[in-house]
Design goal:
Elements: H1 2-32, H2 38-47, H3 51-92
Length: about 110
């Protein structure tokens, strides 16, 4: 019996939440009907965008995200290979001095101006 009630509640809850959200959305839209608001101004602003502008912003944002991701991947690869490279270089020249970069290949904070 308890499982049946729990099953019904489990199925009804998402629908009830959707109905409550729809009710409040309808109420807020109905109260703004016929009034000039910031929401109206925002919608007009968004409607004024041309497809070419949206595409150019999307491509620009995509380029920034791509560049950040590639930078992280490069630093991850440097960190992964740094130990082996240091070992091989020390074998070739035991008196070799270190560049004193971080394991990710970045300049140490105390060396920055």
């Amino acid at each position: 019996m308890l499982e049946t009630i729990a099953g019904i509640i489990h199925k009804v809850t998402p629908w009830a939440a959707g109905i409550v959200i729809a009710y409040y959305a309808h109420s807020s839209i109905q109260s703004l009907a016929g009034h000039a608001t910031f929401a109206d101004i925002g919608i007009k602003f968004l409607a004024d965008f041309r497809i070419s502008e949206v595409v150019s912003y999307a491509v620009g944002a995509g380029g920034v995200i791509y560049g950040a991701r590639m930078g992280k991947l490069k630093k991850d690869a440097i960190e992964r290979m740094a130990g082996r490279i240091k070992e091989l270089e020390t074998k070739m020249d035991p008196g070799r001095s270190s560049s004193r970069l971080t394991p990710r290949g970045e300049t140490r904070s105390e060396d920055k101006p």
